[in-house]
Design brief:
Distance between the termini: 17 Å
Strand content: 15-25%
Largest sheet: 6 strands, mixed
Order of helices and strands: EHEHEHHHEEEH
Oligomer: single chain
Shape: globular
CATH architecture: Alpha-Beta Complex
Structural class: alpha/beta
Strand order of the largest sheet: 1-6-5-4-2-3
CATH topology: Maf protein
Number of strands: 6
Radius of gyration: 15 Å
Helix content: 40-55%
Number of domains: 1
């Protein structure tokens, strides 16, 4: 399933909101006996940091991969070079491959992947700065993807992407409640 989204305000980083999302995820993951792995590019470990900012995270958070370069995406997550060449690092197929590669590499049940253009450089007409692709994979239910266009500077784009990544894990768990 692919979900598309439009512009989102990326005006402020809210550590309390991130911690609140992480606490909720932890509760949900523990209740279902699931663990989470992250695969991050433009957020550079911020999603993992938010998860580990709460007490008891080791019960549900396996760890994360920061795959900022194409080489890291290939070596650590098994993203095929042909996929990167054909679609670029900031794309639905690559976000999906990152999440599924993180599941395969970790052996856990839930993954979130983030790849985007935080800026200030690197944007293009069809993929401006603030374009971020997400993938959420649940081993028992498949992978969902979404793209957002975030407004703001580099820090704001990365912060908003982190919050969206966490929220998406919760949404996936809720929508698959009966699946696994």
């Amino acid at each position: 399933m692919s979900i598309s989204s439009t512009s989102t305000d990326a005006s402020t980083w809210d550590a309390e909101a991130a911690a609140g999302l992480a606490i909720g995820l932890g509760t949900s993951l523990r209740a279902r006996g699931l663990r989470l792995v992250t695969a991050e590019s433009c957020t550079a470990g911020a999603v993992a940091a938010a998860c580990t900012s709460v007490d008891g995270a080791s019960a549900w958070f396996w760890g994360g991969f920061v795959t900022y370069t194409l080489d890291a995406k290939q070596r650590l997550l098994g993203v095929p070079r042909q996929l990167l060449d054909r679609h670029g690092a900031v794309s639905e197929p690559v976000a999906r491959a990152m999440a599924e590669g993180a599941l395969a590499a970790s052996g856990v049940e839930v993954a979130v992947a983030v790849t985007g253009i935080a800026g200030p450089g690197g944007g293009e007409v069809l993929q401006p700065v603030g374009t971020v692709w997400f993938a959420w994979a649940l081993r028992a239910a498949g992978t969902e993807t979404a793209v957002v266009r975030l407004d703001g500077d580099r820090h704001q784009v990365r912060a908003a992407a982190c919050l969206r990544a966490l929220a998406g894990v919760g949404e996936m768990l809720t929508s698959s409640q009966g699946d696994g």
